Amino acid sequence: MVHRRSIGETITDAGLYVALVIVSFTTVYPFIYLLVLSLNETNDAVRGGLYFFPRVFTLENYAYVFENPSLLRASYNSVLRTVLQTVISVFLSGMLAYTLSRRDFIFRPHFSFLLVLTMYVSGGLIPTYLLIKSLGLINSFWVYIIPSLVGAFNVFVMRTFFEQLPDGLVESAYIDGANDFRIYTRIILPISLPVVATIALFISVSEWNAWFDNYLYNSRNPDLNVLQYELQKMIQVAEQQVNQETGEETQRIISPATIKATLTIIVTVPILLVYPFLQRYFVQGMTLGAMKD
Length: 293
Known about the structure:
Elements: H1 7-38, H2 42-45, H3 60-66, H4 71-101, H5 108-120, H6 125-134, H7 152-162, H8 167-175, H9 180-188, H10 193-209, H11 212-217, H12 227-240, E1 245-246, E2 249-250, H13 256-288
Antiparallel strand pairs: 1-2
């Protein structure tokens, strides 16, 4: 028997679809606006009135950004930092999470308490700087990697996921003679792709957007600058830029608004390209990691 939808159900569904369209539009439109602004000529953009299409199309804003000779080196540092930090941090955080997920680990409550403590108590900026200096990490690429190798939040998310796995997997591996490290690398990680992808996405986005540690620890070494820090400096230059004349020609002016829009597009596109490949695992990791039997 075919169920005939009532008028009330039809109206309700129509209202939900309209609401979803509105929410989707308000989510996507700011990115569309920034893209339009970045592709519009600077002097015309200051007039406003740009909505869905550039009024005076130009690639001058992107040319201005990519003319920076330090951008290629900074991009390499950012990519290297993001990849290394993501791979190493996911592996180490997962290792600690696996240990804390084992109910036979007698120090489990103590280590969990210490991890929670780090989420609410911080030493502050000056003690952290003195610690980094005492470790010899100033003006070093490894200052981007070592201080944040293990994150408490990431550990708890992964631990919650590992606790959902059947105990028989580990017990049978013990019977076959496998040690804990082999079990973690050969059994736990391969079947935990949803939570691994979720944490990897969290870390990679955070590392790709990071720049403040560059400012604090490596600002005196241009070879160690990351992309976000170089872009921050370009914004400052754009804000200080004035109309200068050289002979009979006037140099082009790039407004802070258009340069910010252009830089936002540049740093967002890599994440948008990676996210579709991780979306399926990301959704599974967020849902399964929050379930309890």
